[in-house]
Each structure stands twice: as C-alpha cells, then as structure tokens.
Amino acid sequence: MVAQARAIAEVRAAVMIAMERPRDRTAAIAEMREVCRIPQLAERAFFRVPRGGQQVSGESIHLARELARCWGNLTYGVKELARDDARGQSELLAFAWDMQTNARSEIVFMVPHRKDSKGGTGRILTSTQEVYENNASFAGRRLREAIFAILPVWFREEAAGLCHKTLQDGGGQPMAARVASCIGVFQ
User: Fold this and answer.
1) In Å, what is the CA distance from 70 to each residue of 73, 163, 167?
2) Which are the contacts of 70, defined by CB distance < 8 A and separation ≥ 6?
3) Can you give the pTM of this predicted structure?
C-alpha cells in the first residue's frame, strides 16, 4: 500500500507540474528545429531493416525520445507486466502520456523468449541478459509507436524532414569543413 500511495503521489505531482508549467509550443518547435540540425541526431533518426524481401524504413526510437523531450510534459516508458519462463514469454506494456492534454497511448504485447533465424526456427533464450535484450528490442519499436501516437503529426513530420535535410547538407557545414573533420577522425 505504501508503494501504491507513493506511485499515486508521483503521478499527481507530475500532472500538477504540467498544469502549472504549460508547454510553450513556440519554444518546443524552436528546440526541435535546433536539435534536428545536429548531425549526430540526424544519423540516428531513421531505421532501415530488411523485411519480406524489402527494406522497411522510418523514424527511429531515438528521434521519438528526442521529440518527446522537446515537446515536454510527457512521460513514457516500458513496463514488464509478467515473465513466464515456463511458457517462454514476457508480457510488456509500452506507454506514452501527455500529462498536459491527457492524451495517452498504451500497447500491451507478448514477447517470445526466442531468437528467430532465417529458416523459421528459433533458438530458445535462457539467460536473463538474452531475455532482457530481446524484450528491449521488441519494446523499443512499441515505445516509438506509443510516443508518435501522442505527438502532433506535423511536429513529427517537420522533424523528420529536418533530419533528412541535415543528412543531405551535413548540418549546414560547408563540404570543406566536413572533409577536414572526416580526415581528422581517420588520422
């Protein structure tokens, strides 16, 4: 009961702070625009994986987390609801909550404790570390979708466009500076 009361108090405090310090949309947009011009973020902003003989791509969990930070008054995460080693699966919850607007996205999903191979057969994961890493991999994709479900679509699209532009033009650095930097790294 003490832990439950503490959790309730923490949520109330977070909501009260969000109400007392509402989001400054102009500042959030300015910060998003600034960070999306940073090459290190732009390089991690997208994923590309082979699936079904094609390349699937999109915005990454790294971009989702950064946009959530810029937008502010959000909380997000993943919780393990249950782990059943006998059945070889975990039940997880990915969530994102805009405490200012009360928009919430939750995704409950099952993760098998096995690593699939190309032949369709999977290796059973037995170590705690392997199970954790497998769960984290599945959770990152669900968390990304939960965050994007509560962020404004235009905010996400503008950020993705800016990250693509940053990848193309090197974050505004002239080509000579980028070449010199690259040479310096390899020296």
Assistant:
1) 9, 15, 20
2) 28, 31, 32, 35
3) 0.83
